[in-house]
Specification:
mainly alpha
Length: 198
Amino acid sequence: MPKKGARLRAETIAHLSELLHDRFIHLNDDGVVTSLKAALETGKLNDQDSVIIRETWREYRREKKLPAQFVKELAQITSEANTVWANARAQSDFSLYLPFLQKIIDLKKQEAEYVGYTDTPYDALLDTYEPYTTTREIAAVLEEVKHFLVPYLQKIKQSHTTFDTNKLKGDFAYEKQIALIPWWLKLLATTLMPAVSM
């Protein structure tokens, strides 16, 4: 994308995002989404149909809470920010990107308020990447990993073993890579997994 086309691209993405949002939330004008949700609750649908309807309903409820103007503004600023970030990175000048980052953070906070949450605003945002998962659940998993990882990294730092990293570079036969998988899984099972399951 030419640099001078970035703003036009952002405006186009913003306009299309607003149109898509509008079309999506009007899917239920004739009650079709609501009736599909009712069919889902009967428990008589097959697995594939159930997942499609469940996820469509989840996304529909979320989108309905977001004003069209907000959707448009978020789409525009994130598109513009992408180009600014590339430029700031090339110049090693974070200050160029900072105003965009701050605006995105403010908009994301606003999104969390629109969507709603129980414990923390990030739960409202996390749901778009890890549906039905909460910050509290992920924190518990990461805490377990941390209990293993921090001492393990200390052990590696204190080790006097050296390794030629050039051995990791190159073209390796597919068959040899496949043969390595059982060894790697065994290593994983004997190191990381016991610590995580504690």
